[in-house]
Write a structure and sequence with these properties.
Elements lengths: L15 H20 L3 E2 L5 E3 H4 L4 H6 L3 E2 L11 H6 L1 H8 L2 E3 L4 H10 L8 E10 L11 E10 L5 H16 L5 E7 H11 L5 H8 L2 H15 L4 H11 L5 H11 L4 H19 L7 E3 L13 E7 L8 E6 L13 E6 L1 H10 L13 E3 L4 H16 L4 E3 L6 H11 L3 E4 L2 H6 L2 E5 L5 E4 L1 H8 L1
Parallel strand pairs: 1-5, 7-8, 12-13, 12-14
Antiparallel strand pairs: 2-4, 3-4, 5-6, 6-11, 7-9, 9-10, 10-11, 14-15, 15-16
Length: about 450
Protein backbone atom coordinates (compact mmCIF):
# COMPACT_ATOMS: atom_id res chain seq x y z
CA UNK A 1 0.00 0.00 0.00
CA UNK A 2 1.39 3.40 -0.99
CA UNK A 3 2.34 5.73 1.83
CA UNK A 4 0.08 8.76 2.21
CA UNK A 5 2.13 11.94 1.61
CA UNK A 6 2.15 14.20 4.64
CA UNK A 7 3.93 17.23 6.11
CA UNK A 8 5.39 17.66 9.61
CA UNK A 9 2.89 19.47 11.82
CA UNK A 10 3.40 23.22 11.88
CA UNK A 11 4.83 23.39 8.35
CA UNK A 12 3.15 24.29 5.05
CA UNK A 13 3.53 24.04 1.30
CA UNK A 14 3.09 27.27 -0.64
CA UNK A 15 1.56 26.66 -4.07
CA UNK A 16 2.21 28.90 -7.10
CA UNK A 17 -0.68 31.29 -6.40
CA UNK A 18 0.37 31.70 -2.76
CA UNK A 19 4.00 32.17 -3.77
CA UNK A 20 3.10 34.85 -6.30
CA UNK A 21 1.30 36.78 -3.55
CA UNK A 22 4.10 36.22 -1.03
CA UNK A 23 6.69 37.35 -3.57
CA UNK A 24 4.60 40.47 -4.22
CA UNK A 25 4.89 41.33 -0.50
CA UNK A 26 8.58 40.39 -0.24
CA UNK A 27 9.56 42.24 -3.42
CA UNK A 28 7.77 45.36 -2.17
CA UNK A 29 9.55 45.19 1.19
CA UNK A 30 12.96 44.48 -0.39
CA UNK A 31 12.58 47.43 -2.77
CA UNK A 32 12.02 49.82 0.16
CA UNK A 33 14.82 48.25 2.25
CA UNK A 34 17.27 48.79 -0.60
CA UNK A 35 16.07 52.35 -1.16
CA UNK A 36 16.98 53.17 2.46
CA UNK A 37 20.52 51.75 2.14
CA UNK A 38 20.07 48.28 3.68
CA UNK A 39 22.24 45.47 2.33
CA UNK A 40 21.22 41.78 2.06
CA UNK A 41 22.56 39.16 4.47
CA UNK A 42 21.94 35.44 4.94
CA UNK A 43 23.06 33.19 7.76
CA UNK A 44 22.92 29.36 7.85
CA UNK A 45 19.74 27.49 8.70
CA UNK A 46 21.64 25.87 11.57
CA UNK A 47 23.82 27.42 14.26
CA UNK A 48 25.96 25.91 16.99
CA UNK A 49 23.80 25.41 20.07
CA UNK A 50 26.36 27.43 22.05
CA UNK A 51 25.27 30.44 19.93
CA UNK A 52 21.54 29.84 20.42
CA UNK A 53 21.11 28.64 24.00
CA UNK A 54 20.75 31.13 26.83
CA UNK A 55 19.67 33.95 24.48
CA UNK A 56 15.89 33.51 24.53
CA UNK A 57 15.25 32.52 28.14
CA UNK A 58 14.30 29.09 29.48
CA UNK A 59 11.14 28.89 27.37
CA UNK A 60 13.05 29.75 24.20
CA UNK A 61 15.68 27.09 24.95
CA UNK A 62 12.89 24.51 25.18
CA UNK A 63 11.60 25.55 21.74
CA UNK A 64 14.92 25.07 19.93
CA UNK A 65 15.00 22.32 17.30
CA UNK A 66 18.18 20.37 18.03
CA UNK A 67 19.99 18.46 15.26
CA UNK A 68 21.41 15.05 16.13
CA UNK A 69 25.16 14.72 15.57
CA UNK A 70 26.00 12.90 12.35
CA UNK A 71 27.13 9.29 12.46
CA UNK A 72 26.78 7.50 15.79
CA UNK A 73 25.22 10.39 17.70
CA UNK A 74 25.20 8.36 20.92
CA UNK A 75 28.96 7.77 20.87
CA UNK A 76 29.71 10.55 23.37
CA UNK A 77 26.81 9.70 25.68
CA UNK A 78 27.08 7.40 28.67
CA UNK A 79 24.33 5.44 30.48
CA UNK A 80 24.62 8.06 33.26
CA UNK A 81 23.82 10.81 30.74
CA UNK A 82 20.70 8.96 29.66
CA UNK A 83 19.59 8.54 33.27
CA UNK A 84 20.23 12.25 33.97
CA UNK A 85 17.47 13.23 31.55
CA UNK A 86 17.04 15.10 28.28
CA UNK A 87 18.90 18.30 29.24
CA UNK A 88 22.09 16.46 30.09
CA UNK A 89 21.75 14.02 27.20
CA UNK A 90 21.06 16.67 24.55
CA UNK A 91 24.47 18.32 25.08
CA UNK A 92 26.12 14.99 24.24
CA UNK A 93 24.09 14.05 21.17
CA UNK A 94 23.40 17.45 19.54
CA UNK A 95 25.88 20.26 18.92
CA UNK A 96 23.78 22.24 16.43
CA UNK A 97 20.23 23.55 16.18
CA UNK A 98 17.92 25.27 13.69
CA UNK A 99 17.90 29.03 14.17
CA UNK A 100 15.14 30.41 16.38
CA UNK A 101 15.23 33.95 14.98
CA UNK A 102 17.36 36.19 12.75
CA UNK A 103 18.57 38.59 15.43
CA UNK A 104 20.94 36.39 17.44
CA UNK A 105 22.63 34.98 14.29
CA UNK A 106 22.95 38.61 13.09
CA UNK A 107 24.71 39.58 16.33
CA UNK A 108 27.01 36.56 15.95
CA UNK A 109 27.80 37.60 12.36
CA UNK A 110 28.58 41.20 13.37
CA UNK A 111 31.03 40.13 16.07
CA UNK A 112 32.71 37.55 13.82
CA UNK A 113 33.08 40.05 10.95
CA UNK A 114 33.56 43.31 12.83
CA UNK A 115 36.83 44.18 11.08
CA UNK A 116 35.30 43.85 7.58
CA UNK A 117 32.03 45.68 8.30
CA UNK A 118 31.52 49.42 7.64
CA UNK A 119 29.65 50.78 10.67
CA UNK A 120 26.88 51.80 11.02
CA UNK A 121 25.94 48.50 9.38
CA UNK A 122 22.51 48.39 7.73
CA UNK A 123 21.36 44.90 6.78
CA UNK A 124 18.13 43.21 5.79
CA UNK A 125 17.49 39.48 6.09
CA UNK A 126 14.55 37.39 4.85
CA UNK A 127 14.79 33.74 5.86
CA UNK A 128 12.85 30.95 7.57
CA UNK A 129 13.24 30.27 11.29
CA UNK A 130 12.12 27.26 13.31
CA UNK A 131 10.50 26.87 16.73
CA UNK A 132 9.35 23.64 18.35
CA UNK A 133 6.10 25.31 19.40
CA UNK A 134 2.62 23.76 19.61
CA UNK A 135 1.09 24.32 16.15
CA UNK A 136 -2.15 26.32 16.13
CA UNK A 137 -3.89 28.95 14.02
CA UNK A 138 -1.36 31.64 13.09
CA UNK A 139 1.49 29.81 14.86
CA UNK A 140 3.84 27.58 12.90
CA UNK A 141 7.02 25.60 13.52
CA UNK A 142 8.59 26.96 10.35
CA UNK A 143 7.93 30.54 9.28
CA UNK A 144 9.66 33.46 7.62
CA UNK A 145 11.05 36.54 9.31
CA UNK A 146 11.79 39.71 7.39
CA UNK A 147 14.17 41.93 9.38
CA UNK A 148 16.02 45.21 8.84
CA UNK A 149 18.56 46.43 11.42
CA UNK A 150 21.06 49.25 11.84
CA UNK A 151 23.90 48.53 14.25
CA UNK A 152 26.76 50.79 15.36
CA UNK A 153 24.94 54.07 16.07
CA UNK A 154 22.67 55.49 18.77
CA UNK A 155 21.11 58.12 16.47
CA UNK A 156 17.32 58.33 16.64
CA UNK A 157 17.36 59.14 12.94
CA UNK A 158 17.46 55.35 12.50
CA UNK A 159 14.21 54.91 14.46
CA UNK A 160 12.57 57.62 12.35
CA UNK A 161 13.69 56.01 9.09
CA UNK A 162 12.28 52.66 10.20
CA UNK A 163 8.96 54.42 10.84
CA UNK A 164 9.11 55.94 7.35
CA UNK A 165 9.80 52.49 5.90
CA UNK A 166 6.70 51.09 7.62
CA UNK A 167 4.52 53.81 6.09
CA UNK A 168 6.11 53.50 2.64
CA UNK A 169 5.88 49.70 2.50
CA UNK A 170 2.22 49.63 3.46
CA UNK A 171 1.44 52.48 1.07
CA UNK A 172 3.06 50.41 -1.73
CA UNK A 173 0.88 47.45 -0.66
CA UNK A 174 -2.23 49.73 -0.81
CA UNK A 175 -2.85 49.04 2.90
CA UNK A 176 -3.76 52.04 5.05
CA UNK A 177 -5.81 50.59 7.93
CA UNK A 178 -3.01 50.33 10.49
CA UNK A 179 -1.70 52.05 13.60
CA UNK A 180 1.91 52.27 14.81
CA UNK A 181 2.18 52.20 18.59
CA UNK A 182 5.48 53.74 19.73
CA UNK A 183 7.04 54.09 23.18
CA UNK A 184 10.32 53.46 24.99
CA UNK A 185 11.50 50.94 27.55
CA UNK A 186 12.89 53.99 29.38
CA UNK A 187 9.32 55.32 29.72
CA UNK A 188 8.34 52.00 31.33
CA UNK A 189 11.32 52.25 33.67
CA UNK A 190 10.17 55.77 34.53
CA UNK A 191 6.68 54.48 35.32
CA UNK A 192 8.17 51.74 37.52
CA UNK A 193 10.22 54.38 39.41
CA UNK A 194 7.18 56.62 39.88
CA UNK A 195 5.22 53.65 41.22
CA UNK A 196 8.09 52.67 43.54
CA UNK A 197 8.42 49.21 41.96
CA UNK A 198 11.76 49.55 40.12
CA UNK A 199 12.90 46.35 41.86
CA UNK A 200 10.01 44.49 40.19
CA UNK A 201 10.59 45.96 36.72
CA UNK A 202 10.93 42.68 34.80
CA UNK A 203 7.73 41.25 36.29
CA UNK A 204 5.96 44.58 35.79
CA UNK A 205 6.80 44.65 32.06
CA UNK A 206 5.68 41.04 31.51
CA UNK A 207 2.32 41.74 33.16
CA UNK A 208 1.78 45.14 31.50
CA UNK A 209 2.49 43.53 28.12
CA UNK A 210 -0.76 41.55 28.60
CA UNK A 211 -2.91 44.71 28.82
CA UNK A 212 -4.45 44.30 25.34
CA UNK A 213 -5.19 40.62 25.95
CA UNK A 214 -6.57 40.54 29.49
CA UNK A 215 -7.63 44.13 30.22
CA UNK A 216 -6.72 46.70 32.87
CA UNK A 217 -8.59 45.05 35.75
CA UNK A 218 -6.77 41.72 35.46
CA UNK A 219 -3.41 43.50 34.97
CA UNK A 220 -4.04 45.33 38.27
CA UNK A 221 -4.93 42.00 39.94
CA UNK A 222 -1.73 40.33 38.70
CA UNK A 223 0.42 43.25 39.84
CA UNK A 224 -1.27 43.08 43.24
CA UNK A 225 -0.42 39.37 43.43
CA UNK A 226 3.32 40.13 43.09
CA UNK A 227 3.19 42.61 45.96
CA UNK A 228 2.52 45.97 44.29
CA UNK A 229 0.79 48.16 46.90
CA UNK A 230 -2.63 49.75 46.47
CA UNK A 231 -1.40 53.36 46.28
CA UNK A 232 0.99 52.36 43.46
CA UNK A 233 -1.84 50.59 41.65
CA UNK A 234 -4.00 53.73 41.92
CA UNK A 235 -1.13 55.80 40.52
CA UNK A 236 -0.84 53.34 37.63
CA UNK A 237 -4.57 53.71 36.89
CA UNK A 238 -4.10 57.48 36.67
CA UNK A 239 -1.17 57.03 34.28
CA UNK A 240 -3.17 54.63 32.11
CA UNK A 241 -5.92 57.27 31.88
CA UNK A 242 -3.58 59.82 30.23
CA UNK A 243 -4.94 60.70 26.80
CA UNK A 244 -4.71 63.30 24.04
CA UNK A 245 -2.40 63.68 21.06
CA UNK A 246 1.24 62.64 21.21
CA UNK A 247 2.52 66.05 22.36
CA UNK A 248 -0.14 66.26 25.08
CA UNK A 249 0.66 62.79 26.43
CA UNK A 250 4.39 63.58 26.54
CA UNK A 251 3.66 66.87 28.36
CA UNK A 252 1.46 65.16 30.98
CA UNK A 253 4.06 62.46 31.58
CA UNK A 254 6.85 65.04 32.03
CA UNK A 255 5.00 66.25 35.12
CA UNK A 256 4.73 62.68 36.47
CA UNK A 257 8.42 62.00 35.70
CA UNK A 258 9.82 65.06 37.52
CA UNK A 259 11.95 62.79 39.72
CA UNK A 260 12.77 60.11 37.13
CA UNK A 261 15.69 60.99 34.87
CA UNK A 262 15.38 57.78 32.87
CA UNK A 263 11.67 58.41 32.32
CA UNK A 264 12.40 61.95 31.09
CA UNK A 265 15.14 60.57 28.84
CA UNK A 266 12.61 58.16 27.33
CA UNK A 267 10.23 61.06 26.61
CA UNK A 268 13.08 62.95 24.92
CA UNK A 269 13.64 59.91 22.68
CA UNK A 270 9.95 59.84 21.70
CA UNK A 271 9.88 63.57 20.98
CA UNK A 272 13.09 63.48 18.93
CA UNK A 273 11.97 60.44 16.92
CA UNK A 274 8.70 62.22 16.07
CA UNK A 275 10.64 65.40 15.20
CA UNK A 276 12.90 63.47 12.81
CA UNK A 277 9.81 61.90 11.21
CA UNK A 278 8.33 65.36 10.62
CA UNK A 279 11.61 66.69 9.19
CA UNK A 280 11.75 63.71 6.81
CA UNK A 281 8.31 64.62 5.52
CA UNK A 282 6.15 62.06 7.33
CA UNK A 283 3.28 64.47 7.98
CA UNK A 284 0.17 62.27 7.80
CA UNK A 285 1.60 59.59 10.05
CA UNK A 286 -0.10 56.83 12.03
CA UNK A 287 2.27 57.02 15.03
CA UNK A 288 0.57 56.86 18.40
CA UNK A 289 2.59 57.28 21.60
CA UNK A 290 1.37 54.38 23.74
CA UNK A 291 3.00 54.53 27.17
CA UNK A 292 1.88 50.94 27.95
CA UNK A 293 3.71 49.40 24.98
CA UNK A 294 6.13 46.90 26.49
CA UNK A 295 7.28 44.45 23.78
CA UNK A 296 8.08 41.12 25.38
CA UNK A 297 11.75 40.67 24.50
CA UNK A 298 14.05 41.69 27.34
CA UNK A 299 16.95 42.84 25.14
CA UNK A 300 15.11 46.04 24.13
CA UNK A 301 16.48 49.11 25.91
CA UNK A 302 15.06 52.17 24.14
CA UNK A 303 12.36 53.09 21.63
CA UNK A 304 9.99 50.21 20.78
CA UNK A 305 7.12 50.02 18.30
CA UNK A 306 4.55 47.66 16.88
CA UNK A 307 2.08 47.83 14.01
CA UNK A 308 -1.45 46.40 14.07
CA UNK A 309 -4.33 46.54 11.57
CA UNK A 310 -7.26 48.70 12.67
CA UNK A 311 -10.09 47.39 10.48
CA UNK A 312 -9.76 43.63 11.12
CA UNK A 313 -8.93 41.41 14.07
CA UNK A 314 -5.25 40.56 13.65
CA UNK A 315 -2.23 40.56 15.95
CA UNK A 316 0.97 42.53 15.50
CA UNK A 317 2.14 42.50 11.86
CA UNK A 318 5.37 44.50 12.30
CA UNK A 319 7.45 45.30 15.38
CA UNK A 320 10.89 46.13 16.71
CA UNK A 321 12.99 48.41 18.84
CA UNK A 322 16.36 49.66 20.09
CA UNK A 323 18.83 47.32 21.77
CA UNK A 324 22.05 48.65 23.31
CA UNK A 325 24.15 45.55 23.84
CA UNK A 326 22.98 42.60 21.77
CA UNK A 327 26.52 41.83 20.58
CA UNK A 328 27.67 41.80 24.22
CA UNK A 329 26.56 38.16 24.49
CA UNK A 330 29.42 37.35 22.11
CA UNK A 331 32.01 39.53 23.86
CA UNK A 332 31.60 42.78 21.89
CA UNK A 333 29.93 45.25 24.25
CA UNK A 334 28.56 48.73 23.65
CA UNK A 335 27.38 48.16 20.08
CA UNK A 336 23.94 49.80 19.96
CA UNK A 337 21.45 48.84 17.28
CA UNK A 338 17.82 49.17 16.27
CA UNK A 339 15.71 46.86 14.16
CA UNK A 340 12.31 46.05 12.76
CA UNK A 341 10.66 42.80 11.69
CA UNK A 342 7.79 42.45 9.20
CA UNK A 343 5.55 39.43 9.82
CA UNK A 344 5.11 38.07 6.30
CA UNK A 345 2.45 35.49 7.20
CA UNK A 346 0.23 37.96 9.05
CA UNK A 347 0.69 40.63 6.38
CA UNK A 348 -0.36 38.00 3.80
CA UNK A 349 -3.46 37.11 5.83
CA UNK A 350 -4.29 40.81 6.29
CA UNK A 351 -4.06 41.66 2.58
CA UNK A 352 -6.03 38.51 1.74
CA UNK A 353 -8.82 39.30 4.19
CA UNK A 354 -9.07 42.90 2.94
CA UNK A 355 -8.87 41.77 -0.71
CA UNK A 356 -5.88 44.02 -1.37
CA UNK A 357 -3.78 41.79 -3.60
CA UNK A 358 -3.58 43.08 -7.20
CA UNK A 359 -6.25 41.62 -9.44
CA UNK A 360 -3.83 40.94 -12.29
CA UNK A 361 -1.71 37.82 -12.23
CA UNK A 362 1.51 38.73 -10.50
CA UNK A 363 4.64 37.68 -12.40
CA UNK A 364 2.92 34.82 -14.18
CA UNK A 365 2.66 33.94 -17.89
CA UNK A 366 1.16 36.80 -19.95
CA UNK A 367 0.46 34.86 -23.11
CA UNK A 368 0.09 31.18 -24.06
CA UNK A 369 0.72 30.20 -27.67
CA UNK A 370 -1.67 27.45 -28.77
CA UNK A 371 -0.04 24.38 -30.36
CA UNK A 372 -2.27 23.16 -33.26
CA UNK A 373 0.13 20.87 -35.15
CA UNK A 374 3.75 20.49 -36.36
CA UNK A 375 3.47 23.43 -38.78
CA UNK A 376 1.97 25.64 -36.07
CA UNK A 377 4.65 24.63 -33.55
CA UNK A 378 7.51 25.29 -35.98
CA UNK A 379 6.13 28.75 -36.79
CA UNK A 380 5.47 29.51 -33.12
CA UNK A 381 8.97 28.82 -31.78
CA UNK A 382 10.67 31.94 -33.28
CA UNK A 383 7.68 34.03 -32.13
CA UNK A 384 8.05 32.60 -28.62
CA UNK A 385 11.73 33.60 -28.58
CA UNK A 386 10.86 37.08 -29.89
CA UNK A 387 8.29 37.65 -27.15
CA UNK A 388 10.69 36.50 -24.43
CA UNK A 389 13.48 38.70 -25.82
CA UNK A 390 11.21 41.69 -25.11
CA UNK A 391 10.65 40.56 -21.52
CA UNK A 392 7.15 39.19 -22.14
CA UNK A 393 6.40 36.14 -19.97
CA UNK A 394 5.24 33.60 -22.52
CA UNK A 395 5.00 29.88 -23.16
CA UNK A 396 4.06 27.49 -25.95
CA UNK A 397 1.81 24.56 -25.06
CA UNK A 398 4.17 21.58 -25.46
CA UNK A 399 1.72 19.20 -27.18
CA UNK A 400 -0.69 19.57 -30.12
CA UNK A 401 -3.65 18.81 -27.87
CA UNK A 402 -7.31 19.70 -28.35
CA UNK A 403 -8.01 23.43 -28.24
CA UNK A 404 -10.36 23.05 -25.25
CA UNK A 405 -7.61 21.38 -23.21
CA UNK A 406 -5.15 24.18 -23.98
CA UNK A 407 -7.74 26.86 -23.16
CA UNK A 408 -8.51 25.11 -19.85
CA UNK A 409 -4.78 25.10 -19.06
CA UNK A 410 -4.57 28.87 -19.72
CA UNK A 411 -7.67 29.50 -17.64
CA UNK A 412 -6.46 27.44 -14.66
CA UNK A 413 -3.09 29.20 -14.69
CA UNK A 414 -4.75 32.58 -14.91
CA UNK A 415 -2.99 33.44 -18.20
CA UNK A 416 -4.69 36.59 -19.53
CA UNK A 417 -4.00 36.11 -23.26
CA UNK A 418 -3.89 33.21 -25.71
CA UNK A 419 -2.19 33.50 -29.11
CA UNK A 420 -3.48 31.30 -31.94
CA UNK A 421 -1.24 30.48 -34.90
CA UNK A 422 -3.20 28.47 -37.48
CA UNK A 423 -2.59 28.06 -41.18
CA UNK A 424 -4.60 31.22 -41.99
CA UNK A 425 -2.54 33.27 -39.52
CA UNK A 426 0.72 31.86 -40.87
CA UNK A 427 -0.31 32.80 -44.41
CA UNK A 428 -1.33 36.37 -43.46
CA UNK A 429 1.52 37.03 -40.99
CA UNK A 430 -1.04 38.24 -38.43
CA UNK A 431 -1.94 36.23 -35.36
CA UNK A 432 -5.14 36.00 -33.34
CA UNK A 433 -4.79 37.22 -29.74
CA UNK A 434 -7.66 36.29 -27.45
CA UNK A 435 -8.39 38.09 -24.17
CA UNK A 436 -9.30 35.30 -21.73
CA UNK A 437 -11.28 37.65 -19.50
CA UNK A 438 -13.49 39.41 -22.08
CA UNK A 439 -13.36 36.84 -24.89
CA UNK A 440 -12.51 39.57 -27.41
CA UNK A 441 -10.06 38.80 -30.21
CA UNK A 442 -7.86 40.87 -32.50
CA UNK A 443 -5.43 40.15 -35.33
CA UNK A 444 -1.89 41.46 -34.76
CA UNK A 445 1.50 41.32 -36.44
CA UNK A 446 4.55 40.36 -34.34
CA UNK A 447 5.50 44.04 -33.97
CA UNK A 448 1.95 44.98 -32.91
CA UNK A 449 1.79 42.00 -30.56
CA UNK A 450 5.03 43.01 -28.78
CA UNK A 451 3.81 46.61 -28.39
CA UNK A 452 0.43 45.46 -27.11
CA UNK A 453 1.80 43.05 -24.48
CA UNK A 454 4.48 45.48 -23.30
Amino acid sequence: MAQKPSLPKGTRDFGPQQMLKRNYILDTIKKVFKKYGFLPLETPAMENLSVLTGKYGDEGDQLLFRILNSGDFLSKASPEDVKAGSKKLSTKIAEKGLKYDLTVPFARYVVANQHEIAFPFKRYQIQPVWRADRPQKGRYREFYQCDADVIGTRSLLCEAELMLMVHEIFKELKFSDFKVAISSRKVLEGIAEVLGIADKFSQFVVILDKLDKIGEERVIDELSSIGVEENSLNSLKNLLAISGNNASKVEQLRVEFMNSSIGLNGLDDIENTLKYCAQLGLADHKLDFDLTLARGLSYYTGVVYEVKPTSISMGTITAGGRYDDLTGMFGMSGMSGVGISFGIDRIYDTLNELNLFPKDNLDTTQVLIVNFDEESEAHALPILSELRSHGIFSELYPDSAKLKKQMTYADRKGIPYVLMIGSKEIEEGKYTLKNMTTGSQESLSIHELVNFLN
